[in-house]
Amino acid sequence: xxxxxxxxxxxxxxxxxxxxxxxxxxxxxxxxxxxxxxxxxxxxxxxxxxxxxxxxxxxxxxxxxxxxxxxxxxxxxxxxxxxxxxxxxxxxxxxxxxxxxxxxxxxxxxxxxxxxxxxxxxxxxxxxxxxxxxxxxxxxxxxxxxxxxxxxxxxxxxxxxxxxxxxxxxxxxxxxxxxxxxxxxxxxxxxxxxxxxxxxxxxxxxxxxxxxxxxxxxxxxxxxxxxxxxxxxxxxxxxxxxxxxxxxxxxxxxxxxxxxxxxxxxxxxxxxxxxxxxxxxxxxxxxxxxxxxxxxxxxxxxxxxxxxxxxxxxxxxxxxxxxxxxxxxxxxxxxxxxxxxxxxxxxxxxxxxxxxxxxxxxxxxxxxxxxxxxxxxxxxxxxxxxxxxxxxxxxxxxxxxxxxxxxxxxxxxxxxxxxxxxxxxxxxxxxxxxxxxxxxxxxxxxxxxxxxxxxxxxxxxxxxxxxxxxxxxxxxxxxxxxxxxxxxxxxxxxxxxxxxxxxxxxxxxxxxxxxxxxxxxx
Length: 522
Known about the structure:
Mean pLDDT: 93
Shape: globular
Strand content: 15-25%
Oligomer: single chain
Number of strands: 21
Strand order of the largest sheet: 5-4-14-15-16-13-17
Largest sheet: 7 strands, mixed
Radius of gyration: 23 Å
Helix content: 25-40%
Distance between the termini: 44 Å
Number of helices: 16
């Protein structure tokens, strides 16, 4: 078949489906003169799986490219600003044990002058000034003060500090749906798929729907969730589990209302380690989204729920008032993500766990890859598919390494969960190799195979040094010019931090202002 690819069918709504449809539709409208038809089909009775409510800063460009008004998005999706993640008790069980993974780059990151200075000066002191993130960038302090990353006068999608979003996944899916239908010409079909019809060569030919219609397409995008209706069930692409590396397989999620509308909204995701997992705490405008991610092999559901309620300080007599939603999953991903004329995005491609908000990020970069490298016809589709599979196999493995890093550097010995995470047999060889390198070299972007990584070297620095990892400094920062440069960077960081803390509004304050006045157009 040499005919031009024209019809793209997305199966499944929710955040993954509508975000994929919107990214592809917006790109094709802007960059192609050909008439592409994008159709999204979803059942009316499948709820959104709200595992995570955090994004990466990439979402700003994604929404901007789709033509979304940032103020409308913030007001309609219960959005708050996210400037990073705070990890409490991941390294130890001490009361003041925490570190930040902020979204700003370290000062002097190109040659790591400030990182080298911090390593040279670092002691075992737990004083805040000694935190790596606080030493190399202002965002540690911004988060500690629950400040916004911008002011009301800052233009849409711009920031004084780098930022992402916390959002309500259900509201976001509805917002995207309306935007895609009304502004991006995406056709919406409400129906369930009764059967998937294949050609002799194995390609998907069409979908038989329960509304007595047949939906034809040239390229099918599987956003059907854990079910993986097209890629997994129909095309029989296998699933590769990584539960031997990442142990979490369950989550208990609950909505926690604020006491009143003056309660502080955190400027970061709070991740607090427990005996067999961790609790996420995300502050939205009208509530907190809180959940306990845990390993069912190491703790029972009842024990996990008890730890969640203790964290929330909810007394036994009040617990029946809260609806706790349980989500079960197996960490892993499909053996390949694009097979024949079908590509999986979102949960249908795989899921690891909510840590570091990698799920929505993978949706974004998958959809952007398809949009930017959309094959002209079926004849060349296998070439694009092979590239997609190589790229995303690599990306999934690097995400697994990065998530594992958070666990295996821990010094906690209070449970088998943490002890087994530190066992060498559970650590991928690629991560072991990098750790060996980083004992003598500060992580930098040259240590990775791709020029653009899902988690760059700066992210590894924040986690490694936040968790107490040591890099030898015998060949770093000893030259007088390096010492002088580090001193200048440290002075600049101190000055920048004080200036930003003094002038930026609180997270809740800015959100109230946006609701009243909107944001300036770019």
